[in-house]
Amino acid sequence: MIKQYHSRKLSAGVTLIELMIAMVISLVLIAGSIASYTSISLTLQTSKTLENAQEVLRYSSQVFYRSLKQTGAIPLLDGTDSIIVSQDAGVVACNGQTPIAAYTETYTYASPNLLCDIGNGTEVILTGITNIAYEISGNSVSVTVTPEGLPERYDNGVQIDVALIRVIFEQATAE
Questions:
Q1: What is the helix (H) or strand (E) element at residue 159, kind and residue range?
Q2: CA angle 158, 162, 164 (to 5 degrees)
Q3: Residues 64-92: tens digit of each pLDDT
Q4: CA trace torsion 42, 46, 47, 50 (10° rounding)
Q5: Do the beta carbons of residue 109 and residue 132 sit within 8 Å?
Q6: Which of 15, 69, 109, 141 could be bridged to 132 by S-S, CB 3.0 to 4.6 A?
Q7: Residues 135, 158: contact at Cβ < 8 Å?
Q8: First and final CA of the chain: distance in angstroms?
Q9: 3-class DSSP state for residue 160?
Q10: Half-sphere exposure of residue 152, counting CA atoms within 13 Å on the CB side?
Q11: How many CB atoms sit inside 10 A of residue 65's CB?
Q12: Contact of 157 with 151, CB cutoff 8 Å
């Protein structure tokens, strides 16, 4: 009868050691889940940052290609963070409007924004830039854009080279 009582007592519950082992296993599983979540969250954040940097580069490339290819004159640099582009009437401006009279586009960098003014007030056309620089060389313009969140190997930014197609064409046909 003692044996029967003893075996019934062991099967009725768990010991403290078994409970502690179960808790350690649970903690290891929870810690692994938290580590996985943190890693995935960091990867998603990095991906979104790179996606935003790529979008800044794509949009700035689109704006400067459109503006610089349709100008009939070589742009002017106004300091280190501004460029002035003369445009004829009827061409699309930096803010998407199509003025009916000749105008000038003034692109200015004010961290973290790229601003544009066509004579009726400055507008933010792009945000998320840490630096922008312009260089004019003959009939081409180099725009170096550094978006926020760009990997370290691109610390100097990404250079966008634009040929002044209309200026080149007008010079070629004037002779």
A1: strand 158-163
A2: 160
A3: 999 999 999 999 998 777 999 999 999 99
A4: 180
A5: yes
A6: 109
A7: no
A8: 120
A9: strand
A10: 0
A11: 15
A12: no
What secondary structure, in 3-state letters, does 33-64 show? Answer: HHHHHHHHHHHHHHHHHHHHHHHHHHHHHHHH
Q: How many CB atoms are closer than 10 A to CB 62? A: 11
If phi > 0 it is left, if psi is from -120 to 50 it is alpha, else beta; for residue 157 that is left
Report the C-alpha gap between 43 and 153 in whole angstroms: 19
Distance CA 127, CA 148 (A): 9
Residue keyed to tokens 């003692």? 2
Which of 106, 79, 91, 57 lies closest to 165, judged by CA? 91
Angle CA(77)–CA(148)–CA(109) in degrees, nearest 5? 25
The residue whose two tokens read 């935003």 is 52
pTM as predicted: 0.76
| Phi (first) and psi of residue 164, to 5 degrees | -85, 80
Exposed, middle or buried, 127 (CB in 10 Å: 0-12/13-18/19+)?
middle
Would you say 95 and 118 are in contact if contact means Cβ atoms under 8 Å apart?
yes
Q: Which helix (H) or strand (E) holds 145?
A: strand 140-147
Residue 95 phi, psi dihedral angles, 5° rounding:
-95, 10
